[in-house]
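Q: Start with the shorter request: fold the first protein.
A: Done. Sequence, then structure:
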Amino acid sequence: MKWLLAILTILLVTFQYRLWVGEGSLAEVSRLKRELAEQQEKNAVLRRANRQLLREVRSLKEGTDGVEAKARYDLGMVKEGETLFIFMQPEKDSNE
């Protein structure tokens, strides 16, 4: 009877060790769930960026309006007869 009790105690301690510290422990599962949530959030951000880029590509392929807007915004291009005004913010004095 003592041997049976000793074996059961050893098995209980072994299983408890694996539950709290070993591979597949509760702490590891919690960490993996946290990492999964972080990765899913990153994936959602990247999906939104991809959708925006896809819209931009379609706009540039479909007509000249997208190309014109891109040229005006990125390159500062103007049409013939237009006047471009650039308003600049005054630089802040670093001594103040």
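Q: Next, the second protein, separately.
A: Sequence, then structure:
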Amino acid sequence: MSNGFLNASTQRRNRYLLMRHGHSQANAQGLIISTPERGLEAFGLSSQGIAQLDALLLDWRWPTPTRILHSDFLRTTETAARVATHFALPLQREPRLRERNFGDFEGQADDQYPCVWALDTRSAEHVEHGVESVVSVAERMQAVIEELEHSTAGETVLLVSHGDPLQILLTALKGRPLSQHRDQEPLAPASLTVLS
């Protein structure tokens, strides 16, 4: 898959902050919640996630966002809302920033993730067990940035998403094989990454 003008060496018109949602109720329960049917209305932030975000906002040391786009899952919406309130910004739902769909593993224990990641290392295009392919995730995540690059300039855009999609995006932007997305250091809940 070509990364086009989005690769790491390309000068971007906007600055991007990538944020993983705060610790969630799904994290607390050790569950995979990856479908809109379950993730849009339930499994929001845990009390730990709320505390993480309060601490993060109290000690904000990143560029101040001028725009916030977020996955429409409850945990990312609640994360983005806390940041938006802090900076008095509106929210923009962006379904392309959703969690990767883990297919047959939906609702199962999160110790099943490594089964999917092992398959990912063999093929970034696999859809075994009904899992969304790494290639598909990379395409939709990159499309968000590409669209912003064509429509705006000079913004500091905060994209609030999920661990796997963000790691896949970062791998794609570095021009690395997508099958190696788990070589990217895992993103902690409520962590921020600045695209340089």
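Q: Describe the second briefly.
A: The mean pLDDT is 94. The helical segments are 25-29, 36-39, 47-58, 74-87, 113-122, 134-151, 163-173.
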